[in-house]
Amino acid sequence: MQRTTTVVPQADIDRQLAICDQIAQLSAQRGAQPLAFVDTYGCQQNEADSERIRGYLRRMGYGFTGDEEQAQIIVINTCAVREHAELRVLGNVGALVHVKRRHPDTLICLCGCMMQEPHIADKICKSYRHVDLVFGPHALWQFPEFVQTLLTRRGRVFRTADEPGSIAEGIPVVRQDSVKAWVSIMYGCNNFCSYCIVPYVRGRERSRAPEDILEEVRQLAAEGYRDITLLGQNVNSYGKDLDEPMDFSDLLRAVNDIPGDFLIRFMTSHPKDATHKLFETMARCEKVAPVLHLPFQAGNDRILKEMNRRHTRAQYLEKIRDLRSLIPDIVLTSDVIVGFPGETTWEFEDTLKVLEEVQFDALFTFLFSPREGTPAAKLPDPMPREEKLRNFNRLVELQNEISARKHAAYIGKTVRCLIDGRSGEEAYPLSARTPGNRLVRLAGDEGLIGAFADVKITGANTWSLFGELI
After folding, report:
1. What number of H helices and E strands is found in the chain?
2. How far apart are CA 271 and CA 145, in angstroms?
3. What mean pLDDT comes out for the span 53-61?
4. 403 and 450 belong to one structural domain
5. Contact status, residue 446 vs residue 463, Cβ threshold 8 Å
6. Strand 430-433 to strand 439-442: parallel, antiparallel, or no bridges (unpaired)?
7. What is the pLDDT of residue 51?
8. Residue 461 located in a structural domain
9. pLDDT digit string (tens) for 407-443?
10. N or C: lower Cβ tally within 10 Å for the chain?
11. Contact by Cβ (8 Å): 314, 322
12. Which strands sit side by side in the sheet containing 180-184, from one edge to the other?
């Protein structure tokens, strides 16, 4: 397993930027500005990657459109974590054959985690002939040269080599939001949970240098961003591969010391690396939001061992007790997989017991989705889908009851919230977030977006709060 992080030389990034400028000059000579359509599936890390793809595209002279018919280049950034996401991608990419027929010069590009799966890349090559470019996450930094090849030569480009991955700094960014920002602090994963495809498609853990992360956050704070999320497949293991190791708690404290009025969030955390030091740091840093997403996945120790989670139910619960002793009002969320191969309903009951003991504010719940190439995909799975669905529905029903009760407890309280956007509802046109990331819907002027404000909570349901400005 690779433990040393490699960095793409700045000269190589400069070459990509020079290619961008060459493409922009060609576009300018043709007259009308070309347009790009970028669509993203999956996690926040994919969103962060798409912001860099947009950064490159803008440097190439492209504007942006939400209509594939108007675009001269279409980029689909894909997710491989769940089968449903893959099927959606394949369905939508298949439909683009009609766009290609109407506009033969439109470039159709697929990237992201799905493209790093050999069987998917092979399928695209053989069955989706209208796709021009396929590349995995490791090759994103070379996107300009791929586009240049397509614009100047005939043929398709596939770049999905299996490699450990590197860190590429200096790629331009076009952010989709003016209030919230994603900052990737590391890439890849070394955990190899038996159900998870991420280490195979994202590569081994690679940490960005702390000075690069801190400079990016300083710039975001100066630009007025109010909600900054530090991203990694497992942020808790940040820094283990650096020449001068710096753990995540130390990085969090350094980010907290940057001047500015902003909240710090982070995800995702792994229980085995969530330490007392991290919890103390969260408690002492005033900008770190009182919220933690800490996936436990299953409540039964045998299933956790089969998942290769490397923590037990008792260890997880002890960490929660330690965290709450330091931050009593912490908002806790988690991930749960129902129907892991071989899980019995009796073992599933242990998962419900964890919900009852911890009382999570919210859960992200999933039926097990076999991923080709992972150990869990080969395990016998005797439980009928109907029984899995019954268990899944029991889990959702219990969590909905807990969430509704926790949300109801906010009624009558005044909370400092970040007004972060539009809700789309006539009665409550604005959306906001509590420090614990609970959604609040409220009335008010759109000019307040991007501001912190005191909000009195007047109502609640299972999924959101309702409030009024003080």
Report:
1. 13, 19
2. 40
3. 98
4. no
5. no
6. antiparallel
7. 97
8. yes
9. 999 999 999 999 999 988 888 999 999 999 999 999 9
10. N
11. no
12. 180-184, 227-231, 263-267
- The count of residues in the chain is 470
Q: Is residue 62 part of a domain?
A: yes
Both structure tokens of 289: 């939001």
- Tell me the CATH number at 441: 2.40.50.140
Q: List the domain range (segments joined by +) for residue 147.
A: 10-159
Cα separation, 386 vs 365, whole angstroms: 17
User: Residue 243 maps to which CATH number?
Assistant: 3.30.750.210
Domain check: are 99 and 211 in the same one? no
Quick check: bond before 268 cis, omega within 30?
Answer: yes
**DSSP-assigned letter for residue 409:** T
Q: Are strands 206-207 and 186-187 parallel, antiparallel or unpaired?
A: antiparallel
Please enumerate in sequence order all residues whose Cβ is within 8 A of that of 393, keeping only pairs 6 or more positions apart, or say none.
none
Residues 317-334 have pLDDT tens digits of 999 999 999 999 999 999
CATH at residue 87 = 3.40.50.12160
Secondary structure of 185-246 in the HEC alphabet?
CEECCCCCCCCCCHHHHHCCCEECCHHHHHHHHHHHHHCCCCEEEEECCCHHHCCCCCCCCC
Give the whole-angstrom CA distance, residue 70 versus residue 423: 28
Residue 165 makes CB contacts below 8 A (sequence gap 6+) with 137, 138, 187, 188, 202, 203, 204, 206
Same domain, 20 and 138: yes
* φ/ψ bin of 42: left (φ > 0), alpha (ψ from -120 to 50), beta (otherwise): left
2 pLDDT higher than 70: no
CB 169 within 8 A of CB 208: yes
Nearest partner of 188 among 179, 197, 180, judged by Cα:
197
What does residue 73 show for φ and ψ, rounded to 5 degrees?
-140, 135
- Cα separation of the two ends of the chain: 55
Query: 239 to each of 46, 169, 245, 246, 271, how far by Cα in Å?
Result: 21, 17, 5, 5, 17
Cβ neighbours around 366 below 10 Å, total: 17
Read off the pLDDT of residues 22-42 as tens digits, 9 standing for 90 and up.
Answer: 999 998 888 889 999 999 998
Count structural domains, the chain: 4
Per residue in 336-351, is it b (16+ CB within 10 Å) or e — as a string? bbbbbbebeeebbebb
Taking the C-alpha atoms of residue 173 and residue 468, their distance in angstroms, rounded to an integer, is 35
CA 465 to chain centre: 24
Other Cβ atoms less than 10 A from the Cβ of 148: the count is 18
Structure-block tokens of residue 330: 């912490």
- Residues 421 and 399 placed together within one structural domain of the fold: no
